[in-house]
């Protein structure tokens, strides 16, 4: 059942359903009413190639908002729900499959569901178990969908047994912070060569020739020696080494880039919503569920990874 105070089938029909994260689920095709109370219990969303099949989703915890109808179940869970032919009827296996899929209690018999459009049908062997505990049931093994147009007063919380008595059974939901990781580009690294000029000083040995006078005495009677007195000049060529500078380019090293992965710890924080359970005590008092009080003192749950 929806959490609004009053919603008729006309209010729900043709609305667009969204999940708690705001993801669009689809357009509501039919509204399913409890045959005994006339309250909306489920809605079906047309799926399939030509809309011949429908995905059922409970109205438990659903809210009307500006976009349409926000249901309490995520889009992927609704899309994975057992599919039902639009013009068929449910057998026992299909009925129980819906209960198991949404983790709801099975039907207890006595009530049945009827669609807000389509042909009339007969009540089956099983019906809804209540808006809170079972969030309504989709007929029994022989239940068929039949037309009906009824308005309902919303009643969030209490379930209803086959004899019409309330038996408090409620599903509490809360948001969990799920943190994932994605990899993206943060920058570019490049290798670049530039030419710089520097002074280099080195020392090498340099040789040159110098002149010195060497005198040797001539022995008496030595032949081939002229004793004529005259002027004479002789020339000696001197040699010296000069430094010659030549430059050549040689390969000295190979340079490349490598990446290393560095892991660091980063704290993530965000706000999450959760439902708290309150109940009215006899005498007009109101109390909060013990588990909710413990969760509040404990600060709730951390993010899921």
UniProtKB/TrEMBL annotation:
Gene3D superfamilies assigned to the protein according to its UniProt record, in alphabetical order: Photosynthetic Reaction Center, subunit H, domain 2
UniProt xrefs under SUPFAM superfamilies: PRC-barrel domain
Short name of any one Pfam family annotated for the protein: DUF2382
InterPro entries given in the database record: Bac_photo_RC_H_C, DUF2382, PRC-brl_dom, PRC_barrel-like_sf, Stress_Response_Assoc
Occurrences of domain PRC-barrel (ranges): 9-76
Coiled coil: none
Basic and acidic residues compositional bias, start-end: 263-277, 287-298
A GO BP annotation: photosynthesis, light reaction
Domain DUF2382: 170-278
GO CC entries: plasma membrane light-harvesting complex
Low complexity bias: start-end ranges: 118-135
Region feature (Disordered): 105-166, 263-305
PANTHER family reported in the protein's UniProt record: STRESS RESPONSE PROTEIN YSNF
Name recorded for this polypeptide: DUF2382 domain-containing protein
């Amino acid at each position: 059942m929806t959490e609004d105070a009053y919603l008729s089938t006309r209010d729900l029909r043709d609305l667009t359903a969204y999940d708690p994260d705001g993801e669009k689920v689809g357009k509501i095709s039919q509204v399913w009413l409890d045959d005994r109370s006339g309250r909306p219990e489920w809605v079906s969303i047309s799926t399939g190639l030509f809309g011949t099949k429908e995905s059922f989703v409970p109205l438990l915890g659903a809210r009307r908002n500006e976009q349409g109808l926000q249901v309490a179940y995520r889009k992927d869970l609704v899309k994975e729900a057992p599919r039902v032919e639009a013009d068929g009827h449910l057998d026992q296996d299909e009925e129980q499959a819906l209960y198991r899929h949404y983790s709801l209690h099975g039907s207890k018999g006595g009530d049945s569901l009827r669609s807000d459009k389509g042909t009339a049908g007969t009540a089956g062997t099983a019906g809804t178990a209540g808006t809170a505990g079972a969030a309504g049931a989709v007929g029994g093994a022989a239940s068929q969908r039949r037309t009906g147009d009824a308005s309902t007063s919303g009643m969030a919380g209490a379930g209803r047994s086959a004899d019409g008595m309330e038996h408090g059974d409620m599903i509490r939901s809360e948001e969990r912070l799920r943190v994932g990781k994605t990899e993206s580009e943060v920058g570019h690294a490049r290798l670049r060569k530039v030419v710089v000029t520097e002074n280099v000083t080195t020392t090498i040995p340099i040789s040159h020739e110098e002149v010195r006078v060497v005198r040797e005495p001539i022995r008496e009677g030595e032949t081939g020696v002229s004793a004529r007195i005259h002027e004479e000049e002789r020339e000696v060529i001197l040699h010296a080494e000069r430094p010659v500078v030549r430059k050549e380019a040689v390969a000295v090293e190979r340079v490349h880039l490598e990446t290393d992965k560095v892991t660091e710890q980063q704290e993530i924080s965000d706000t999450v919503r959760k439902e708290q359970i309150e109940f009215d005590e006899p005498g007009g008092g109101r109390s909060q569920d013990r588990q909710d009080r413990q969760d509040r003192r404990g600060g709730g749950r951390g993010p899921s990874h």
